[in-house]
Structure prediction request, 352 residues.
Amino acid sequence: MTIVYVLVAILIFGILIAIHEFGHFMAAKACGVRVEEFAIGMGPVLWKRKKGETQYSLRAVPVGGFCAMTGEDEASEDPRAFTSQPAWKRIIILAAGAFMNFVLGLVIIALLYASASAFRAPILSGFMEGCPYEGEEALQVGDRFYKIDGHRIYQYYDVSDFLARGDGSYDLVMIRDGKKVSFKDFKLEPLEYEGQEKKMYGFYFGYEEATLGVKLRYTWDTAMEFGRMVWMSLEQLISGQVGMKDLSGPVGIVDMMAETGEQAASTVDALYNIFYLGAFVAVNLAIMNLLPIPALDGGRIFLLLVTWIIEHITRKKLDPKYEGYIHAGGMVLLLGLMAFVMINDVVRIVTG
Prediction:
């Protein structure tokens, strides 16, 4: 079954790329920009077809893709060129890819949750015998964890995750009878309870019936949870808690998806887990592509805004080729990073 899960993972990754580029393509068409080629994949052309003014192609390497617009990085006299458009149109076109990735992530999560009958919720349904954290001036059955030390609680497992990050004293915000109740410096430490092999906080979490409204809320909350995980990973990378060797690219992601499928108890569980991971990757791509790094969509938007400000101050039109040079340099560095990550992924897979 491994090869099947690998193929499913590759298909999902290809769809993520196609949707991203399709976002750019649709936004460009809607804004009246001439699109010369819409391609899925990179490298040699496997298939191509010309329709109207645009060539559609499928390329050999299933990593990346592009939406080539007239005058994308150079001056053009064509009124339909990308650089001939006002800044707001160019921003919409550049942001459309990430937007479509995020929407795809939401759609996948919604489909996965469609058959759910209930969700485990961060709502207190009871306390273990002898738990000292229950009381009129403390926590009560029915309380919903809303924030811990300023961090929004989306899922029930967020509670233990953020309690584990603290020092035993927390600022809690609970939802009680529809109102927010705050606790400042609330003492919470895992304790020993009879019949339990390890120390615990002594909470029991309840369930919420999966009505349509609850499903939609959990879909959004899961996407927000994915986004927070991406930002926390970036913080760990910047702070040095994780290194460059811990990064994964397309090869590593596909391998992770396939391994996730192999470890599942059944084929249905395997596909569920693979698509769940695919939703996480979709949200991840949406956020990463909007980072202000040259060659990424976020870098292009950032330089576009900087250029717009300079032009309005100096009253002079800047040559787009200089912005193109910056993005070309960024692309070289990005391709170098991708090559390093891919080699690292292959070595990690081979060596086990």
The mean pLDDT is 85. The beta strands are 35-51, 54-69, 118-127, 144-148, 151-152, 169-176, 179-187, 203-209. The helical segments are 2-30, 87-113, 156-165, 212-239, 250-263, 267-289, 297-314, 320-351. The first strand starts at residue 35 and ends at 51.
